[in-house]
Amino acid sequence: xxxxxxxxxxxxxxxxxxxxxxxxxxxxxxxxxxxxxxxxxxxxxxxxxxxxxxxxxxxxxxxxxxxxxxxxxxxxxxxxxxxxxxxxxxxxxxxxxxxxxxxxxxxxxxxxxxxxxxxxxxxxxxxxxxxxxxxxxxxxxxxxxxxxxxxxxxxxxxxxxxxxxxxxxxxxxxxxxxxxxxxxxxxxxxxxxxxxxx
Length: 198
Ligand SMILES: Nc1nc2c(c(=O)[nH]1)N(C=O)[C@@H](CNc1ccc(C(=O)N[C@@H](CCC(=O)O)C(=O)O)cc1)CN2
Ligand SMILES: Nc1ncnc2c1ncn2[C@@H]1O[C@H](COP(=O)(O)OP(=O)(O)OP(=O)(O)O)[C@@H](O)[C@H]1O
What we know:
Layout: H1 3-19, H2 24-36, H3 39-43, E1 46-48, H4 60-68, E2 72-78, E3 84-89, E4 97-99, E5 105-107, E6 112-113, E7 120-124, E8 127-128, E9 134-135, H5 141-148, E10 152-156, E11 177-180, E12 183-185
The protein binds ligand FFO and adenosine-5'-triphosphate.
């Protein structure tokens, strides 16, 4: 099977697996708790964070805590032309959001932000492996984003989404960390990195 087909298969499996995770709200609160203790979070001046849809790890509490701590917050916005853009938000009052493409929540009033404006990006996942490879909905938006900006990338996932191996292609960007309800997962060096030849 080629990589694309394997990813498609994994995506279906992982979506079903994530939807079956019990107590997602409780687990999301535990994940938020771990994130708030991260030095990278505490040091961040501005964060980029998705607004959860479907069975994703919830982020409302995390975003609200960041705003309360005086951090600036950016959310992704897929516009009608299908491109990924970004908007600053000042608070997280649901009345200020509407439904955008793919069922995502987007601010009613867009205040444009650009990659490079924030130092920490929270990435929604369908699956991840210990090398920091991830799989998302398959539109390539986050690969593009992480490729465009110098940002620390933290994946948010339930532990059930960990896979032994996520196949990857040259455009795939690795995460710096993955936080699950069980804690902060260390990313192990890829065997293809020069580390092993030292
Ligand atoms: N919360 C969130 N916002 C995000 C993303 C994401 O993965 N999650 N994106 C990441 O790229 C971008 C939007 N891209 C997306 C691309 C495809 C689907 C998608 O296939 N959605 C399913 C329904 C998902 C569900 O209900 O669990 C669908 O439309 O069938 C969603 C978002 C930017 N905003
Ligand atoms: N930096 C990029 N530039 C152009 N195309 C890209 C880039 N990154 C990914 N793509 C394209 O996007 C598609 C989806 O990529 P991939 O299978 O890695 O999705 P994914 O990582 O699951 O999705 P996402 O990033 O949306 O969560 C692929 O067809 C790929 O060719």
